Known about the structure:
CATH superfamily of the largest domain in chain A: Winged helix-like DNA-binding domain superfamily/Winged helix DNA-binding domain
Number of helices of chain A: 7
Order of helices and strands of chain A: HEHHEEHHHH
Structural class of chain A: mainly alpha
Helix content of chain A: 55-70%
Distance between the termini of chain A: 45 Å
Number of domains of chain A: 2
Largest interface: A-B, 72 and 72 residues
Strand order of the largest sheet of chain A: 1-3-2
Oligomer: homodimer
Amino acid sequence: MSLPHAILTALLERPSSGLDLTRRFDRSIGYFWSATHQQIYRELGRLEAEGHIRALPAEQPARGQKKAYEVLPAGRAELARWTAAAQDPKPHRDAMLLRLRAAAVVGTAGLEADLRRHLELHRRQLAEYEEIEERDFPPGEDSAQARLQHLVLRAGIELETFWTRWLTEALAGLPAAEDRPQEP
Amino acid sequence: MSLPHAILTALLERPSSGLDLTRRFDRSIGYFWSATHQQIYRELGRLEAEGHIRALPAEQPARGQKKAYEVLPAGRAELARWTAAAQDPKPHRDAMLLRLRAAAVVGTAGLEADLRRHLELHRRQLAEYEEIEERDFPPGEDSAQARLQHLVLRAGIELETFWTRWLTEALAGLPAAEDRPQEP
DNA sequence: ACGGGTTGTGCAACTAGTTGCACAATAAGG
DNA sequence: CCTTATTGTGCAACTAGTTGCACAACCCGT
């Protein structure tokens, strides 16, 4: 039940069209709440029907077809309510950890390549986050808003740091092909 | 597409009935792949239909009704295949990070209580993991199997450590009620 | 022996997210 | 101009996970 709230947040930060939102979900917002354009359009429709957002009157009327949305007071209120409401953490699901556990039983054959690939992906993501940090959060920040945003980014950085470290360790600990356990 | 593989792993570690599995998903396995008993029963049915597992002939026939399952060779093969296959990491979704980002826009009013609650939950989980580590992985381990299992547990420990640290930081950084930004 | 909790299994309906496709409008290239 | 690529919007069908309920059997106390 969080996609609508992710969209409300994004639209409050800046009114946008569906495609704009899609792009922003591919970068910043999507780092911790991903969504496809199909989901976004569907949800925009619902939010509009509920009176939480409305389409901005197009400046260049009907030209490019691009509809931009802005958040209405009801939408902001709903977002504030949701933010403050108690929510249980969703149960975790991590396929890689599951695969490692499976490998402990059926053997690690063939796993190494994908571990390396994931390591590389996490490294890249980490680099991207660090770039954003350098660009958008120079030392000596002030506003409460900036501090909160930085905090969220820090979470991303530290999580990716953890994964790169952990995957490196995992690769180091993988048995060499010769003495690999391979239960019958 | 991982629940069946989680179940296969669990059943290889030890043949179990649906309820046994449910309990094991509430402890160890479920720490990184949670599932409800309804999901588990449904999936057991499918796995049996596909010939990946089979019901063990009951020792005390029909007594308590309890059906135990074991993995067939086809099931083990499928698990090995899945473990080795390349898989893209699933996009993240973390409601708490989203809420923080929303709070940067609509204000942090009411958030503190739930942050504290989450902190407490993560602390408890961390304590549980550390207990397991102490009990099941005394220093000087040997088998490749134990090393892999320990590695997975370490991931859990380090993730919970991160979250407790991060939430503590977040709470410390929260503006006091007086000077809280509260956009109109 | 009977009423109430616990154990164990399962179906049905719903919700959220994913995948695959469609199609109009405009921009870009020959 | 005419075609092709890109931009922008959206529907439909499917998959995975969640919630709510049902119900038989056994176990325990009175």
